[in-house]
Amino acid sequence: MSKTAPRLLLVDDDKSLLRLLKIRLQGSGYQVETAENGNQALQLLEKTAVDVVVSDLRMGDIDGIELFEMIQQQHTGLPVIIITAQGSIQDAVAATQKGVFGFLTKPVNIKELLLLIDRALGVSPMKPSQQAETQWREHLKSRSGVMEQLLTTTAQIAGTDVSVLINGQSGTGKELLAQALHQASSRSKKPFIPINCSALPEPLLESELFGHVKGAFSGAVADHQGLFRAADGGTLFLDEIGDMPLSLQAKLLRVLQDRQVRPVGSTRLYPVNVRLVSATHRDLDQMMEDHEFRQDLYYRINVVKLEIPPLNQRPEDIALLANHFLIKACEQASTEQKQFSPNALELLIGARWPGNVRQLENTVQELMALTPGRVIGANRVRQTLSNEIAYLPSYSEARRQFEHDYLSKLLRLTSGNVTQAARLAQRNRTDFYKLLQRHDLKAEQFKGEE
C-alpha cells in the first residue's frame, strides 16, 4: 500500500465487524489502524497520525460521543464518523449537535461509509486546496450518504456538456443542485439563468426563452434577446419543465437539435451554446404515456438524471440544516444568535417534512421570530409543527413515491435479485426492469449491503 494513502482509525468492540471493515477499507486503498475500545484508540492517536476516525457509538469503556469529545480536545479538527446498531433520533441529535462529522447506522452500508470518509478527508483544515475544490457545493449542506452519492455523481458529470434532468419533490432544492452543477463546470464564469416554466403563459414563456423582435405582437415595443442567447456560454435552467405546453416543447426540441434560436417574429437564426439543465417534480414517464410530454424531447433533456431525495430520507441532515437556517435567519433579522435545545432538535428531526427543505427553512424562520429568548425549546417547536396546514401530495407525486418505496423494499428483501423481486411483485422481468429504470433504481445497489 502506498505510504501516501490516507490513514483511518476504526474503533469497535465487535472484533468481527472491525476485521470486516478493515478488509473492505484496505481494499478501497486506505491505510487502516484498529482499536477495540476508546482507551486503545486514544493511546494509538498519541503515536500515530490519522486522517479520519470511524467509531462505534456503544462501547464498554468510553462511548463514541465521549471519544469524540476527547479527540477534539487533543486533536482539534480530526473528523470523526459515528456508527451504531442502536440508531435513534436521540443519537443523531447528540452526534450532529456536538460536531460529529457523520452518523451511520448498522448494518453499515459500505458505499455510504466510503462517501463520508472521502468527504471528511476533504474538509480537514490542513487541506485548503481540497476545501477550495468543494466550493461549488457550499450551499448544499449535507452529511447524509445518499446526498454525498448524489453530489459525487454531480461532480463527475460537471466536466461534460450533457443535458441533465433533476427530479425531486417540491422544496428539495433542485435549483440549488443545478447551480452547484454549473459552478463545478467549465461554464462557471458564464451566466447561470433560471426560469420557471409553470410561472408564465405559453406566449410569454416562448418570448422569454427565444426572444422577440419589435412589433412581433402587441406590447413588443423593443427587441428582446431571450434567455437562450442571454445564457450563451453558460447554463440555462428550466425549472418545472413538465408544465411546458406541448406546442412549446416542439419548439424547444428544434432549438436543442439545431443549436440555433429564432426570436418570435424574426426570420433570422442565432447560434447558441448553452448547457441545458431541466427539473421537475412530475412523473415524465407517465406524462409520455399520457401523451402530455414529447418522448423525443425527454431523451434530449434526460441524458443524465439526478434524483434528489426528500428530506425525510436524509434525517441526518435535518439538524445541520436547521442550525444553518437559524444562523441565517438571525443574521437577516439583525438579532442575537439563537439556538435550539436538544429536545427541540429531536422534534425537528422526527418530523415528516412533506414540504422538504423549503418547509424546514420557513419553519425555522417562524421559530426564530416567535421565540423571545435565546433558546428555542421543544414546546415552541411542537406548537409550530402542530399549527401547520396538513400537506397532501398530488396524486402523481404520491403514486411515484409509493412505487419507488415499494420497488426499493422488494430489492432490499431479495438482496438485489431481480428475478425474485419480479416474482414477488407478480410482474414479468421485462416490465420490472422498466419500472426500475423509471425510478432510476439499480439492482446492484441492493446486493451485499452490510
TrEMBL record:
4-aspartylphosphate modifications at = D56
Record domain Response regulatory: where: 7-121
What is a single Pfam family found in this protein's UniProt entry?
Answer: Sigma54_activat
UniProt cross-references to CDD domains, sorted A to Z: AAA (cd00009)
Q: What is one GO biological process annotated to this record?
A: phosphorelay signal transduction system
InterPro entries, A to Z: AAA+_ATPase (IPR003593), AAA_lid_NorR (IPR058031), CheY-like_superfamily (IPR011006), Homeodomain-like_sf (IPR009057), P-loop_NTPase (IPR027417), Sig_transdc_resp-reg_receiver (IPR001789), Sigma_54_int (IPR002078), Sigma_54_int_dom_ATP-bd_1 (IPR025662)
Sigma-54 factor interaction domain span: 140-369
What PANTHER family does this protein's entry cite?
TRANSCRIPTIONAL REGULATORY PROTEIN, TRANSCRIPTIONAL REGULATORY PROTEIN GLRR
Protein name as annotated: Response regulator
Q: What is the lineage of its organism?
A: Bacteria, Pseudomonadati, Pseudomonadota, Gammaproteobacteria, Oceanospirillales
